[in-house]
C-alpha cells in the first residue's frame, strides 16, 4: 500500500494549485493503490491548507482594486477547430487509421490500427536492449531527474534515424496533421508489473522557471500521441482524471490529445497518467509535437 511521502505531497500541492477537483485527485490516488479513505483524507488536507493560505493572501491584498484582480484572473481555455481530419477513417500517409472515439473537452481522439502488429513487434525488439530509467523535467531547473512518480524504462530515437522510423514519423505527422519537423524524436517506454506514471501535464507550465529551458527550441508542446505497442492483460490504462476518461492499452491503437489552442492557451483538462500495470507489461511509443520546428 503506498504512503503519502514527499513525492505525493508535492503531487497534491501541485494539482491543487492547478485547479484539479477533489474527486479527480481522489480517483487518481485510488488508481495508484491508495485506500479510498486515505486518499480522501490526504486530498481534503491539501485543500484545507490551500484555503488557509488563500485567506491569508486575501487579507493581505484587501486593498487591491477589482480591476486589477479581474485582469489577473486566468481566461478559460477556448476549444477551437482540431487539426485532425474529420471522419471515421483517416488516411495517414501510408495507412488507413480508424477513429474509435472523439471527445471535445479535452480534445481527445482514440485510434485503432495506427501501427500493424509487425511494426509494434519491431519497435519493441529494436528497443528492448537499449532501455534506461525514465526521467521527468525538474520544474525549477529544467533538468531531467529520476523520481518515484514515474516507474518506467525508455529510449529516444532521433527523428528520421532510419527508413523504418522515418516512415512511422510521416504516418504520425499525417495523422496529427502537424509538420514532421515540429516533432520530437519518438520515445519508447516499457512499464513492468506495478509500473505507473502518476497524473501530470505534457506541456511545460509557463509559470515554472525550468520550462524556459525546454521551450527555447521549438516552443511549447501542443499535442501528444501515445501508441500502444502491446496488449496489457490488466491495468496500464491512460487515465484523464479531470475528464473521467480511461483508455485501455490495445496493440496498434493510440490516444491523441491536444492541449494548446491557436491562442496559445493551455488546457488543464489534459491532466493524465499511466495507471499501474496489474498484469504483464506495457510498451508504448510517444510522439510530442511542438509549435515550431524542433531539433
Describe this structure in words.
By secondary structure, the protein is of the alpha+beta class. It folds into 2 domains: about 5-70, no CATH class; about 90-290, Sandwich (Jelly Rolls). About 30% of the residues lie in helices and about 25% in strands. The protein has 7 helices and 17 strands. The chain has helices spanning about 5-15, 20-30, 35-60, 65-70, 115-125, 165-175, 210-215; strands spanning about 90, 95-105, 105-110, 130-135, 135, 145, 155, 185-190, 195-200, 220-230, 235, 240, 245, 255-260, 270-275, 275-280, 280-290. The chain has a 9-stranded antiparallel beta sheet. The protein has a 4-stranded antiparallel beta sheet with strand order 9-15-12-13, with no helix packed on it. A two-stranded antiparallel sheet has the order 5-6. A hairpin with a 2-residue loop joins strand 1 and strand 2 (about 95-105). Helix 1 packs across helix 3 and helix 2 runs antiparallel to helix 3 (about 35-60). The N and C termini lie far apart (about 40 Å). Residues about 55-75 have low confidence and may be disordered. Its cofactor is L-ascorbate. Keywords: Dioxygenase, Iron, Metal-binding, Oxidoreductase, Vitamin C. This is Prolyl 4-hydroxylase. It comes from Paraburkholderia terricola. GO terms for molecular function: procollagen-proline 4-dioxygenase activity.
Amino acid at each position: 500500500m503506498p504512503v503519502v511521502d514527499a513525492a505525493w505531497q508535492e503531487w497534491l500541492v501541485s494539482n491543487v494549485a492547478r485547479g484539479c477537483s477533489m474527486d479527480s485527485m481522489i480517483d487518481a490516488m485510488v488508481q495508484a493503490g491508495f485506500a479510498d479513505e486515505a486518499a480522501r483524507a490526504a486530498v481534503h488536507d491539501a485543500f484545507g491548507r490551500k484555503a488557509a493560505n488563500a485567506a491569508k493572501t486575501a487579507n493581505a491584498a484587501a486593498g487591491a482594486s477589482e480591476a486589477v484582480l479581474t485582469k489577473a484572473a486566468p481566461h478559460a481555455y477556448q476549444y477551437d477547430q482540431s487539426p485532425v481530419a474529420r471522419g471515421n477513417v483517416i488516411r495517414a500517409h501510408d495507412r488507413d487509421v480508424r477513429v474509435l472515439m472523439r471527445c471535445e473537452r479535452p480534445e481527445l481522439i482514440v485510434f485503432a490500427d495506427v501501427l500493424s502488429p509487425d511494426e509494434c513487434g519491431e519497435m519493441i525488439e529494436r528497443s528492448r536492449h537499449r532501455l534506461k530509467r525514465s526521467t521527468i523535467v525538474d520544474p525549477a531547473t529544467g533538468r531531467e531527474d529520476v523520481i518515484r512518480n514515474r516507474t518506467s524504462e525508455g529510449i529516444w530515437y532521433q527523428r528520421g534515424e532510419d527508413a523504418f522510423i522515418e516512415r512511422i514519423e510521416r504516418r504520425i505527422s499525417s495523422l496529427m496533421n502537424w509538420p514532421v519537423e515540429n516533432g520530437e524524436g519518438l520515445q519508447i517506454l516499457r512499464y513492468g508489473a506495478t509500473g505507473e506514471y502518476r497524473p501530470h501535464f505534457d506541456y511545460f507550465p509557463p509559470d515554472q522557471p525550468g520550462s524556459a529551458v525546454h521551450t527555447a527550441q521549438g516552443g511549447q508542446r501542443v499535442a501528444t500521441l501515445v501508441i500502444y505497442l502491446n496488449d496489457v492483460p490488466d491495468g496500464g490504462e491512460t487515465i484523464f482524471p479531470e475528464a473521467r476518461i480511461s483508455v485501455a492499452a490495445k496493440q496498434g491503437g493510440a490516444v491523441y490529445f491536444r492541449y494548446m489552442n491557436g491562442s496559445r492557451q493551455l488546457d488543464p483538462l489534459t491532466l493524465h497518467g499511466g495507471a499501474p500495470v496489474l498484469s504483464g507489461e506495457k510498451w508504448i511509443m510517444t510522439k510530442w509535437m511542438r509549435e515550431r520546428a524542433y531539433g
